[in-house]
Amino acid sequence: MQIEEGIKNRFNELKQLAEKDMGDALGLEYQLISRDEMRAKMSVNENTIQPMGILHGGASVALAETLSSIGAWLNITDETKVAVGLEINANHIKTVRAGQSVIGISKPLHRGAQTQVWETRIETETGKLVCISRCTIAIIKRRK
Q: What is the value of pTM for the model shown?
């Protein structure tokens, strides 16, 4: 896993907030952690398929929101604020069968003080588009 210099401690702090999270449930393998791009691999397996043996759209959406939310959180410099999902949409373009993997690549389109917008491309390992998603993140005060 490659982590941008200067945010390693912040990422580790985030991962220590909960013993397990959605990324763990999905079996995400983070490949790149940075303020400008988040990238993770997800296996298409019994945890991420629908009954027909193909990638579940909800797993794709959870992958997209996980990457977007972490990326947004890493861009916040005010320690009294946190990033939370406000809205997400997804277009499912291609099916992926169990036994394969997909790669989620999230990049910011807008990084404001109150909202951020991230786009996630989910691709096969050969680069074919599986899903395109856009996630709006609210930047709110951290509750104690």
A: 0.95
